[in-house]
Amino acid sequence: MMIEDFGSRIASVWQGLRSTTRNLIVGALQSSAPTPPPARRASSTPYDARADWELSRLLTALDERVSEKDSSLTPEQVRELRRMADTTATVLQYQTRSAEVFAQLVARAHARNDFSRIDTLADALTERFAPSETAELTRVADPVVRALALEAMVQLPTGSLVTLLVIRSMPKWRVMQSNDKSLSTNRKKLARS
Description:
Elements: H1 8-15, H2 19-30, H3 38-44, H4 49-67, H5 75-95, H6 99-111, H7 115-128, H8 131-137, H9 143-155, H10 158-192
Helix pairs in contact: 1-4, 2-5, 4-5, 6-7, 8-9
């Protein structure tokens, strides 16, 4: 089956993938194992943020095409699209370190009532994500994502939390310091006049 058979949007997203990203999906689709081993994926390849972005776009396009009601796809094409979407989600699950992609995967799993995948994603959040990414997830509107992030934050070492608080308060401190300087300058001008 050709990628163009799935529609112009999917073909466009597919053409926009770098060859390394495309090979990642093709290899995962051709492998007999349903999921890549997490230890091998995490240790052997460096994190590729662009691949996350590309795969996230592909997953969105695939899921939207599968859910179209007035689709001209045959049942076999729908099955193949679902398989490709699930494979893309699995690849992302084992490689992502992005808060946005994590939120997308959790929302997708929650919509499918795939609680074992949500559990696996929650484990990845505590093992693989930077504390700053976890903190970013605490502000997401989706209550499931936010709850998982808050649970992960509770498990962080106190030193990491203190560092996050200090870093997050620094821009405010600089603004306050800047405002104090301009206030004192204004006071001096008023005193002279």
